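Re: export button greyed out
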Amino acid sequence: MSDTGDIIREEILSPEGIQEAIAVIARDIAYRCAGDNVAFIGIYTRGVTLARRVAAVLKTQGLDYPVGTLDISLYRDDFDNRGTDLPRLESSDVPFALDGTRVIIFDEVIFTGRTVRAALDGLMDYGRPAKIELAVLIDRGHREIPIQPDYVGKKIGTNRDQYVKVRFHEDDEREGVFIVKKRAGHPHHPA
Amino acid sequence: MSELKPRKDLLDIESLDLEEIEYVLENAVPFKQLFQRSVKKVPTLRGKTVLNLFYEPSTRTSSSFEVAANRMSADVTNFTISSSSVVKGESLLDTIETLQAMRSDYIVIRHQAAGVPGIVAKHTGASVINAGDGYHAHPTQALLDAMTIREVYPEYKGRKVVIVGDILHSRVARSTSTLLNKLGIEVAVLGPGSLVPEGRHDFMTRLRSWDEVFDWKPDAVYLLRVQMERQEGQFFPSIAEYHKMYGMNSERLVRMRELGSYLMHPGPVNRGVEITDEAMGYERSLISTQVENGIAVRMAVLHWLKPETDKE
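Workaround output, generated via the alternate export path:
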């Protein structure tokens, strides 16, 4: 999305704030998963970055968890509503056996929960994990299906018509978490 | 990020711009990776219907589309006309009306007359995919050929492909050469004088013999099928003569090995005509890769096209 025109943009988390939120997720995972066979799966694009960052923090503590990637485009429930922005697929990469593994899915924001629903379907086509959990940097509320995260970096209150954009320096020019509000006249489009 | 406009139909290669070609070829890669999973299927087209409408015999292309549609979770109906309704006198537009009533989302069509898929596309909201029409076009074949070449040559620009055989009657030659040219790959042709039209494609180099082919140093040699059904002995003296002059045999295979050239063929193969048994076992043959890539590319095409079925 271009950040131009009728858009109001407000930073709600600085790069330092992001690092703190990542530390919270890493701490909780280390505590709750001790001794388990754990693997991370990042949802493209920024869920992958988040998974890699959390894995890097845990590695400094001697916990070496592999990171796989998942493109959920083919599992979305809104394929019929695809507009002019045609989906470009990424290569999913699950380089470890899922059977018997405690898998943690990573996404940068949880909103309606529909992306995670798609990820669960996609993931289970690769195998049968012992357990699947969900880690998000931001929980912004407004779920449309009964899916809740197990590890949350930061919970924020939002209005339904706002966008929450997580930007990482690996993928974007400027790092931060932003609330973006479009002025009236734009169609609703859940993240 | 994306300036791509949604497209309803895929009728030929000529009307595609480079960005669309890149889009389909890049998306075909993740589709192909699905084939490595135990579950090869994705739910993307669940509840959608694909009608396979073949007026000409074809097992390979029709099955390839069927497998592609199945792996996208679409429901597939195979409608092999085998000229029965045509014999009964049903006009094309009546057939289209019948198809409309079936409410298909995608219609894959092969027809002996050039332009038929285009006519069907104008009269239906379904996405129409041309699976070969007369001597005109076979766009998904071209896309799978391009995907195959890009896999073995990630730096494909400036690579050289020579197409050997009946260029005149070949919609494969037409679509594939057009696509390779758009991608910046050099194309040459070799074939009987009666089957290589002069000046149809200015961009193609005309080679006169295998010696000229090997001097040209092709990165891939693309053998066309000798279309027995379109032949009737008028264009070259005999099959044996064709095999001797243009077929892939042991001596030519030696030269292929020296150059490290890949071998391609759209199938089905006429052994002993355009290729010998020995050459079929060539270690740089891409023929089965082409078949596999055909499914991936057709999945990417189904994923790309957008039916306008609400309009009906």
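Chain B touches chain A at residues 1-2, 4-6, 23, 26-27, 29-31, 33, 37-39, 41-45, 303-304, 306 (CB under 8 Å). The button fix ships in the next patch.
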